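Predict structure. Input: Thiol:disulfide interchange protein, 666 residues.
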Amino acid sequence: MTALFMMVAAAPVMADSAPPPAPGAIHLPMRLVPESAAPRAGSTVTLAIAATPDKGWHGYWKNGGDAGLPTEAHWTLPTGVTAGGLRYPVPGQLKIAGLMNYVYERPFALLVDLSVPAGLTAGTALPVSVKLDYLVCTDTICVPESQTLSTRLTIGDGAIDPSVRAEFDRWRAALPKPLGGEGVIETRGKTVRIAVPLPAAVAVKDAYFFPDRSGIIDHAADQALARQGDQAILTIPAAAVPTPGPVSGVLSIGEGKGLAFTAKPGAIADAADTSKGFGAIALAFLGAVLGGLLLNIMPCVFPILSLKALSLARGGGDERHARTEALAYTAGVVLVCVGLGVILLALRAGGQSAGWAFQLQDPRVIGVLLLLVAGIAFNLAGLFELPTPAFAGRSGAMGSFATGALAAFVATPCSGPFMAGALGAALVLPAAAALAVFAGLGIGIALPFLAIGFIPALRRRLPKPGMWMVRLRHILSVPMFLTALALAWILGQEAGVTGMTLGLAATLLASLGFWWTGLRQHGGKGRAFWPALVMLVLAVAIVVTVKPAAAVAKSAADTAFTEAKLDSLRKEGRPVFAYFTADWCLSCKVNEAAAIERSSVRDAFARNKVAVLVGDWTDGDPVLGRFIERHNRAGVPLYLYYAPGAKEPQVLPQVLTPSMLEKLGA
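Output follows.
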């Protein structure tokens, strides 16, 4: 309190003409409002200290900045009742005479939770009072004030009046949202840098960092914000006498919205220097290489790899030829993977929360892939033969490049071990490091063919050409036909029965063209490929008419979380996976990209009939907020699994893996 009276004494020096306050006047009147006047025994009830500053006056946040003090609350409570800490709304800034103050110039409310002991009988009275000591100021004078507020609670059924609930919803919406991820703070000389995990898609307006304590930054100095991938980097002059250690605070992102987070001391890599995060980058790169390597055994890649490898057996032992083809194939694979990565990062920088295989969210792309895979399958089955491109030349380098590009593009619907974590990590790395991870995926896909091309011993182990290769081609057509069937199913999921019918009709039309071309090839006629080309153009024209919107709208409506929908699904006896997310929650987005939105997880949920509900807390929906709080969480992410017949949900870890989700409902 000594500092408070020193400030009061100093205030008139700032403006000697300021009139003295009237004796006993209250310039920040407050009232104590319980959310429920009849809380249940053993529950928690929220109280609001609602304050309305007089015109020209302001109250202070928990860290007043250069010249303010927090509110002190001294509770008088019944036996067994305990009060939590005060929760403050996002403050504003007020700079006076070079001093920065963190203030409230408009009506605001401090929230506090009271824990009511169990075992109390209905009708038990719980008198509650609190003595509040605080500072209230104008631009020219500060006054310490004190108020004692009281209310009376009665043990009951926990009912909440709708008008009171609406008021508390508005007060809760003004609180900063807890950011799931942890930040990093680094002091370099007289500059403090703070890295906040924040998805690139989140718009930030007039960003400002409010630290919970002094001794971190120069409160009155300007703050600079830079976006670095999925991080927001604040650069602020340090306090005159900095105190090291972790810091908590609120990042204001505009329009009264703020994100609460904690930052621990550490190193922050510059945008152009990823060496400080080399370990994380190397791990993600290795995971991408392993994931790409394992993709080669997937039905969408293995037939292409097998035939390309056996083509070297036909080529004999020419070392130069083998290496050239291997390098060209690798270049095609890596170029497509990096190209998709560039598009993905550009979409995310433009505000879209896209993930790997983002193009598969458009049913028109699924339709084109269906035609492509069906064409490969019919070629393997012997219906027609692909002509050797004129540009392939004697070395076949261009042909190998095209085959590699084809293999990478066809591989996008598939996913495998190691890929999820690696590509999820790539989304939070700087752009250069992320592209290195995407290149690692391409290297992994190309690695078997690269090894065959550069290691003569492996080529010598390849079987010699013969009629068995024809039979093998026919066998390899089966996994490609299965891949086409899976793509048709995905098309139906995204565009409904009409979209799937159009896709199958286009495939049938293209197949007729392939068959006609095969007849002309077997008959030795010239320009045999023209029927297939014409039919393929018509088929593509059909699939590009498939509308992507209908399925998306239906999915969003079906999966939006409400407690009524949850209760209905549980009464049906269905297992339910409910997850709660927000656009500004980086850990949420990483989990979604790395685990929840994987095709293997969607397939497992479909097999096990697991219903999925999504609670979007981006705008701080108070209804979702109360539901989240009931599960002992202050914010997102929150992952819940409701097994059939279980009374309580299983709270899943905040770091998810595909295998963890695939087991749900099994």
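The first helix runs from residue 2 to 14.
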